[in-house]
Amino acid sequence: MKIEDCFYLGKIVRKYSFNGELLIKLDTDQPELYENLDAVFIDYRNTFIPFFIESSQFHKSDLLRVQFEDVTTEAEADSLLKSDVYLPLEFLPKLEGNKFYFHEVIGFRMDDVNYGHVGTITAINDSTAQALFEVEKDEKEILIPLNDQFIVKVDRSKKTILVNTPEGLIDLYL
Questions:
Q1: Do 124 and 144 share a structural domain?
Q2: Start-to-end CA span in the chain (Å)
Q3: What is the CATH number of the domain that holds 116?
Q4: Is a pLDDT exceeding 90 seen at residue 137?
């Protein structure tokens, strides 16, 4: 399993007990989907390792308390602190309509209702206050806010996203 075949589920943020239990801060809007997992992948010292889950339960909203098999001491738990946790992409629930996962739309064509063909989505920048589509057209980068009001239609079969951006936004980049 490679990291590109997986999605980021969360981060191990702290120990819970003296017998190796850990708390994972989940990065999801639907934490209940991940309560009864059998295993996860952990980015452990730059190596992608599967860890099997002996037991898990929710601890205060978005924290998942887990006991991994073969992690039974405080020292073993300490070594996993601050590690990123991943699951294979097939564990993601299917989204419909105009909802999508960021990784899903990379490579999609973007068209605007008024402007026409905008370009190809090369990435989504979610490190800013508002997530942005990074769109490339003629070797120029166009940044479009990822705003539900702008998204008219996501067509997975044609790999296109139709947006309706404010007048002049796209022209700023060209």
A1: yes
A2: 41
A3: 2.30.30.240
A4: yes
